[in-house]
């Protein structure tokens, strides 16, 4: 069964600190892995997208890593800001009959406090 | 323009009402999607349109009726909804559903409340 599991479920950090969010997946056949940021009541916004051959990808203060062997990904946030408070969703794309189905993780809810 | 727009932002409707949600993109994308998202849960796929044809229906009840009038527009017609249908409805688009690395761009969503 295709599954994406994220940890922790929620996280509180102080402004300026770094943090790392984890994503483990059992998805086959794997197409790509994405990290989205979703503010409450808003649509998800893409942070990074990585294919099988990519190990790391950065977008400003966000750096995602992918280990396709262990089927793990992480999202590292550097020098957190109050505006980083949101849900971070790991999404793995699986090829299914010519259509790429997105398997969503439950998300990690990050709260950055001053 | 990398934006997906959705209207209305908020909608309150009774169980006997008929209403429609609208989604628009001008990125030339040929695949469009409807998702339903309950609070603190990930989005759940409802429908996929590819080249203006319905290609995926994830066993959605018939009280939800999608329509794709052209390649830029996607509607979701609502009729006889139940209170448990209250959720954030997200529209997304991508260049196409058939290639692995196509990004899905999400709209801001419509917050639907069924009374």
Note the main attributes of this structure.
heterodimer; A: 114 residues; mainly beta; six-stranded mixed β-sheet; five-stranded antiparallel β-sheet; 11 strands; 0% helix; B: 115 residues; seven-stranded mixed β-sheet; four-stranded antiparallel β-sheet; 56% strand; globular
Summarize the structure.
Chain A is built from no helices and 11 strands. By secondary structure, chain A is mainly β.
Write the layout of secondary structure elements.
The complex is a heterodimer of chains A (114) and B (115).
Chain A: E1 3-7, E2 10-14, E3 19-26, E4 30-38, E5 45-51, E6 56-59, E7 62-67, E8 72-77, E9 86-96, E10 99-104, E11 108-113
Parallel strand pairs in A: 2-11
Antiparallel strand pairs in A: 1-3, 3-8, 4-5, 4-9, 6-7, 7-8, 9-10, 9-11
Chain B: E1 4-7, E2 10-13, E3 18-25, E4 31-37, E5 44-50, E6 53-57, E7 64-70, E8 73-79, E9 87-94, E10 105-106, E11 110-114
Parallel strand pairs in B: 2-11
Antiparallel strand pairs in B: 1-3, 3-8, 4-5, 4-9, 5-6, 7-8, 9-10, 9-11
Describe the structure.
The complex is a heterodimer of chains A (114) and B (115). Chain A contains no helices and 11 strands. With 114 residues, chain A is an all-beta fold. In chain A, strands 2, 4, 5, 9, 10 and 11 form a 6-stranded mixed β-sheet that branches. Chain A is globular. The termini of chain A are far apart. With 115 residues, chain B is mainly β. Chain B contains no helices and 11 strands. Chain B has strands at residues 4-7, 10-13, 18-25, 31-37, 44-50, 53-57, 64-70, 73-79, 87-94, 105-106, 110-114. In chain B, the strands form 2 sheets. In chain B, strands 2, 4, 5, 6, 9, 10 and 11 form a 7-stranded mixed β-sheet that branches. Chain B has a 4-stranded antiparallel β-sheet with strand order 1-3-8-7, with no helix packed on it. In chain B, strand 5 and strand 6 form a beta hairpin. Classes of the chains: A mainly beta (114), B mainly beta (115). The interface between A and B is medium-sized, with 25 and 29 residues.
